[in-house]
Amino acid sequence: VQLEESGGGVVQAGGSLRLSCGASERTYNPNTMAWFRQGPGKEREFVAALTRSPNNAVYADSVKGRFTISRGNAEITHYLQMNNLKSDDTAVYYCATNLNRIVLTGLRLAHAYANWGQGTQVAVSS
Questions:
Q1: Is the peptide bond before 54 cis (omega within 30 degrees of 0)?
Q2: Cross-strand pairs, 9
Q3: pLDDT value at position 33?
Q4: Which of 19, 21, 39, 107 suits a disulfide with 7, CB 3.0-4.6 Å?
Q5: Which residues have C-beta within 8 Å of that of residue 87, sequence separation ≥ 6?
Q6: What is the pLDDT of residue 73?
Q7: How far, in Å, CA of 49 to CA of 43, rounded?
Q8: Within 10 A of 82 (CB to CB), how many other CB atoms are there?
Q9: Which pLDDT belongs to residue 55?
Q10: What is the 3-state secondary structure (H, E, C) of 72-115?
Q11: Can you tell me the distance from the alpha carbon of 62 to that of 46, in angstroms, rounded to the nearest whole number?
Q12: Taking 90 as the threshold, does the pLDDT of residue 1 lie above it?
């Protein structure tokens, strides 16, 4: 399955964006879905993850209370609603999925995910 992110763009600090992760296979139904990001000159970092069963959502401390990960339907596997954006949120955002459940301790680890999108740029201007 191939993943593709959409919804990135340029937004002023304090604004909002919603990212979507589309799958090439309509019947693809992963158990674990996540978002990672890579800022300028930084390593890729975990943002948020969601498992279908059991229903768990995990967030990086830096986005907790501002970002929400949610499941999609049909062609969209999951979303990332980003509110109160800050300049530090500027990054390329990647969606990732795994067909099987990833245990709670592994949700923040990029290598646990089998499928990745190409990334979408989010730029927050101050």
A1: yes
A2: 122
A3: 97
A4: 19
A5: 13, 124, 125, 126
A6: 85
A7: 18
A8: 26
A9: 86
A10: CCCCEEEEEEECCCCHHHCEEEEEEEECCCCCHHHCCCHHHCCE
A11: 10
A12: yes
- Cβ atoms of 77 and 95 within 8 Å: the answer is yes
DSSP state of 25: S
DSSP of 29-82: --SEEEEEEE-TTS--EEEEEEETTTTEEEE-TTTTTTEEEEE--TTEEEEEEE
Distant-in-sequence, close-in-space partners of 119: CB < 8 Å, separation ≥ 6: 5, 38, 92, 93, 94
The pLDDT of residue 53 = 82
The region that residue 110 occupies, defined by phi over 0 for left and psi between -120 and 50 for alpha, beta otherwise, is alpha
Tell me, what's the pLDDT at 47? 98
61-90, pLDDT tens digit by residue?
999 999 999 999 878 999 999 999 999 999
Average confidence (pLDDT) over 93-114: 95
Tokens for 39?
């800022």
Structure tokens belonging to residue 23: 């799958």
